[in-house]
UniProtKB/TrEMBL annotation:
Pfam families: Amidase_3, SH3_3. Residues 29-91, 112-174, 188-250 form the SH3b domain. The lineage of its organism: Bacteria, Bacillati, Bacillota, Bacilli, Bacillales. It comes from Niallia endozanthoxylica. Keywords: Cell wall biogenesis/degradation, Hydrolase, Signal. GO terms for biological process: cell wall organization; peptidoglycan catabolic process. Residues 1-27 form the signal peptide. GO terms for cellular component: outer membrane-bounded periplasmic space. InterPro entries: MurNAc-LAA_cat, N-acetylmuramoyl-L-ala_amidase, N-acetylmuramoyl_amidase_3, SH3-like_bac-type. One of its GO terms (molecular function) is N-acetylmuramoyl-L-alanine amidase activity. The keyword Hydrolase applies. This is SH3 domain-containing protein.
Length: 453
């Protein structure tokens, strides 16, 4: 009996010793420190899992468990995620509260602060990355609660949801304090439309219903101005809204030189839509489906941007009475012979292939238009010069280019590269609604000039 008791006590002692050792080992590795910028935190232990968020270098996080070459960590709001072991350092006995000063600085925004969205239309995402899922969409003038800031991204809360937006498109609290709400009642202000096919909308945002379209040179009386939009009087007695970047008012026109006034008058009197009516035009949004094209420094996919530009252009040409065809209307893969065949089947008067560029040198920026055959050059020159005029982008010229969709095309065909996604500043710029509108207008005007000659 005594022997059994001794055996039992020895077993208990060994178990307690083993548990103590295990507990000590776990406590000794309570945290990790991030050793690289923009570390992806994934939903599971592997590269096949989606990205939840990204972390900055120097951040310290609680370790929950390890699995192979991956570590599960505790994030804020009781969320968890997985990081690759080779991108973090294990901290023996260090608490996650010992966050680096750089990480604390990124978090030092009062949660009661609010900011105002300055972009016309802005996606907010599940993580500070353009690859992250879209949580929702915000419009210009929307006020949101600011939770934190991380480099070029701000974490916000709106409508019961949290997400991340680019700091470039939000007016932060310190900026808001120095700016009065821009609501004005213009006195006898007449607005002149700057672009053919300009949208007049029901409410002051780019997602609103289009009431009608106006052409360059048409004039409207301004009733009210608020946050970059004019409310205008329409001929049928209704009112509508037009963005301030597609019009000029009387005061702007008065300050222009005599030569500029003459040029504007000449342009206003020439409605290019008459030269586009019934023309068969094929718009080819580059890439699609499994072919994403290039990817920007912030994660922008070329295939998505080319389709957005193509849709803007399609609307403008259709409003002018052109017979317009898109080679693709959604995220779908098309081979190059198919794209060329669309031009042949439609007996196109013009084929426009839309792309965005990329290079290893991140300082390179600007716009380039390509042709293959000499008889395609005139179309390329007209489109290129018009887009440069509208967008004010760096002019990289009109060049010969050995690209399948123009080389194998027996129609008047050009390929235009509308900016460099490899340049971080240009990547943000070309995504804006203002740029998309200007680029589409430039191509529209270039086509009009070409068919006029």
């Amino acid at each position: 009996m005594l022997k059994k008791k001794l055996t039992f006590l020895i077993c208990i002692t060994l178990c307690l010793t083993w548990l103590g050792t295990t507990s000590t080992t776990h406590a000794a590795s309570t945290a990790i420190t991030v050793t690289t910028d923009y570390l992806n935190v994934r939903k599971g232990p592997g590269l096949d899992y989606g990205v939840l968020t990204t972390l900055n270098k120097g951040g310290v996080y609680l370790v929950l468990k390890e699995e192979g070459e991956w570590t599960q960590i505790q994030l804020k709001n009781n969320e968890t995620g997985w990081v690759a072991n080779y991108l973090v350092n294990k901290n023996e006995g260090e608490s996650p509260s010992q966050t680096s000063s750089a990480e604390r600085q990124n978090q030092e925004i009062n949660s009661s602060d609010t900011g105002r969205v300055t972009a016309n239309s802005l996606n907010f995402r599940a993580a500070p990355s353009l690859n992250a899922d879209i949580v929702g969409k915000l419009y210009q003038g929307t006020h949101v609660n600011i939770l934190s800031q991380r480099d070029d991204w701000v974490e916000i809360q709106y409508g019961g949801q949290t997400g991340w937006i680019s700091v470039e498109y939000i007016q932060l609290p310190e900026e808001e304090n120095h700016i009065e709400t821009n609501v004005q009642t213009p006195e006898d202000t007449t607005l002149t439309i700057l672009h053919n096919g300009t949208n007049i909308r029901k409410t002051p945002n780019t997602q609103s219903t289009i009431l009608q379209r106006a052409n360059k040179g048409e004039t409207f009386r301004a009733i009210r101005f608020e946050n970059d939009w004019y409310e205008i009087q329409l001929p049928d007695g209704q009112t509508g809204y037009v963005a301030n970047w597609v019009v000029s008012d009387q005061s702007e026109q008065m300050t222009q030189s005599t030569s500029s006034e003459e040029n504007n008058s000449e342009a206003s009197n020439n409605d290019l839509s008459q030269y586009l009516k019934n023309k068969k035009i094929v718009i080819d949004p580059g890439h699609g489906g499994k072919d994403g094209g290039t990817t920007g420094t912030r994660g922008t996919l070329e295939k998505e941007l080319t389709l957005e530009t193509a849709r803007h252009l399609f609307d403008k040409l259709r409003a002018a009475g052109a017979d317009v065809t898109l080679t693709r209307q959604r995220d779908k893969y098309l081979n190059l012979p198919y794209r060329v065949n669309v031009a042949n089947e439609q007996n196109a008067d013009a084929f426009i292939s839309i792309h965005y560029d990329s290079t290893k040198d991140r300082s390179v920026r600007g716009l380039t238009t390509y042709f293959y055959y000499p008889w395609q050059k005139e179309l390329a020159v007209n489109i290129h010069s018009a887009v440069i005029d509208e967008t004010k982008m760096n002019d990289r010229g009109t060049r010969f280019g050995d690209y399948y969709v123009i080389r194998e095309n027996n129609k008047k065909a050009v390929l235009i590269e509308l900016g460099y996604l490899s340049n971080p500043t240009e990547e943000l710029h070309v995504q804006s609604n203002q740029y998309q509108e200007s680029a589409a207008t430039g191509i529209y005007e270039g086509l009009g000039r070409y068919f006029k000659e």
